Task: structure prediction
Amino acid sequence: MSRAAVSLLLVVALSIVPVVTSAKKKPPTIKSLEGRSIEVPAEREITASNERARDNYREFLDLVSEDPLLRAEAMRRLADLELEATEAQQLSDNVGTLDQSSFASAVALFKSLLESYPDYRRNDTVLYQLARAYEVAGQTDESLATLNELVTRYPTTSRRAEIEFRRGEMLFLRKNYGDAERAYQHVVAAGEGSRFYVQSLYKLGWAQFKLARHEASFGAFFALLDHKLRGIDFLASGDPLAVLGRADRELVDDTLRVVSISCSYLDGPLSMQQFFASRPSPGYSYLVYRKLGDLYLEKERFVDAAKTYEAFAAENPTHPRAPQLQAAAIDANQQGGFASLVLEAKQNFVERYGLDQAFWQHNVRAGNENVIDNLKANLTDLAQYFHAEAQRDAELSDYQQAARWYRKFLEYFPDETGSAATNFLLAEILFESADFAAATDEYERSAYDYPEHERSAEAAYAAILAYRRHEAELSGDAKSSWHARYLDSGLRFADAFPQHPESNAVLTVVAEDLFAQQQFDLAIVVAQSLVKKQPPAAAAMLRTAWTVIAHAQFDLGQFDLAEHAYYALREYTPTDDSVASQEIDTRIASAIYKQGEAARERGALETAVGHFQRVAAVVPDATIRATAEYDAAAALMKLQAWDRASAVLLNLRSNFPNGEYADDVTKNLALAYRQSGRTADAAAEFERIAMQASPNDEVRREALWHAIDLYKDGKNSIDEERVLEILVAQYPEPFVESFEARARLLELAEQRADVNLVRTRLQDLQRADAMAGSERTERSRYLAALASLRLAEPLRQRFSTTRITQPLASSLTFKKSMMEELVSLYGVAIDYAVEEVTTAATFRLGEAYEQFALDLMQSERPADLDALALEEYDLLLEEQAFPFEEKAIDFYKVNAARATDGIYDEWVQRSFAALAELMPARYAKQERSEDVVTALY
Result:
């Protein structure tokens, strides 16, 4: 059956004006598109009274022969009816065939009419019907010629649009695309009011396509699309073309396909961009790109397909359909196996449709779930791709890219079910790239900022490892600050995941580190949590924990608690580890000792003594034992428990005879003995002090004095004298003390009435003063002066009892030598300038001279002298004695003269008495002071 027959059948049967449709079995091809047309309905329906009308017109023609107008009209109508009846009959009999001879009557009528009535006013219609009859009869050449004649003779005919359309169709079938193009353009120019407008646009575009004028064809095709798609909301979700009828949908699809083909012949998506650059981009523009991309995919031009899809997305990033095309670009690259292009397309997707991009300022998430899903998938793919690349090649840029995409995912989807796992992967990539500081933050975020997930504990522990790695890179204050954060993280981990295999190990390390940081309270809490865990931690960890507890309590001054913690620690210490055991014992002893110190500081001395003495009981070999016993004794001494203190001190001396407290033990024993009245024992201890090498000279000297005093108090003069001699021999300095010791030795010698020893002590006193130099004191000078008098006394006594005998020369010489020595001794005494010594020495000098004069006068006379010789001898003696007597008077006068200075001691008085005897005329009565001689020389 011909197309004309089918068209006529549809007009008669259905009276509708749609595009002829057929089931879409496969994608249309260029060949199939060429034959597509829109059938135009008949001018009117064929009525059931067609045959009667024809009979009527025939009768009319037979009756009317004079009126040409009526005959012409009747002939036209009859021809029309003949044509219609023939078409209807043929179609009714056999739709598949159409006998051309059946139309001869109609053709003959139309031609006769034209020939008979060339000026008939409706000849344009007659020509139209004639062309139609030719066309239906399959005589297309005649039909086309008739239509050409029609438009030539009647260019303004009201049927011009239809005529041009039919011309265009026939010309198109003859592949006369140029004339067909012009024919269709006439129809299009008539505007949308024409029934043939849409089909003419379609065929115009095709004609231009056939002429390879692809860019020109866009005008017609897009005008058609504009017309058919007008009013459709392309921003709505779903398929916007679903509102079209089947025929319109196929027409639109076919148009989009031929446009795609044209673009593929040109510059692909660039052709579209250039076309739309000169006009507003239509709402359906994405369909154009989509169809073009799909066409490329059919031809397996995957890269071109991807570029096409992406071109739209790049040009229209906020368009609701842009993400779909970007996703299509990804799929196209994947189908082509272009991994690098897939990666690039995925990056573009994320960068265009990330939740912080402009797309979401124009579109809402509701209804765009597929965009969100694609965004998640692409972010995940990008991150995992670069993560894998980084693990393979260890390139820093890959690590950075992986971290970037992981972060983007978390930024966009912080509360997604998979965000915790993504956060963990971010931490992993940061750790692998040695960015340990950032890794700690992300591990902790993954572990604690999400509901617990399968990798929470792993993330928490990994954070600790990252803290350690970063800390190794730091120093100074930064390291200290970071370490504090590390400890906090460890505590958080152990608290949140107590059953984690590494929980006990982390608690152990944290406890140790807290102790090292001197955060003792917290270290104790952490370590105690470890020792309380069930099931129990490993023995080595418990040992560490108890070590931390004990040491921390010790350092906090909680010595009683520390002591018991050390006992617990001892339970976890291997018996063969003697060094550790000894260290623990030392710590226990120290804890006990510290309890004693604490008690002492708060004044609980008896309690302190108990703790100090407990050290030896608990840890007999403790290095601090001596100190503890010493402090126990000291506390007892403060309590004035002298006997108990002495016992402790003696025990300390016995156990540690050469210990560091040996000297102090002696001192304290001396004090304790003295306070308890055991003076002899106390003195002995002071002597022990003096013999010690460790104290300084001052201490030893003082100790000797204490011993001296104690011996003196105990009336033990022998030991007192012995110690005094030691003191004088060993410590001549300071002079004052040693001089007093000599004075005391003199007293002891006098008490014993040992004349020789007394003389020795006197000489020692005098010698010490003489050698003192600038250190001489008034007392030393005084005692030395007295000593000089006493040293002269034996000589004076011998001098006074020694007589001058015959032979006179030798006796007188001896007496004179004694005299000279005595004068020298008293001169020394006078030189001390001590008042009472000076007056005594002066008197003794006068006395010596007086005695010498007297002894000279009373000397033994030679036996062989006669009276005269004896008298002369006596006169001679008087002459010799007189100067000595004068000298004696002078010394007495010097002493007497001191009375005017208020000095009137025994020796001044005795001087006056001697003068009274020697010079009674002057001194037997009170003399005036100004007559007294005031100088000897």
User: Anything to note?
Assistant: DSSP finds 44 helices and no strands in the chain.
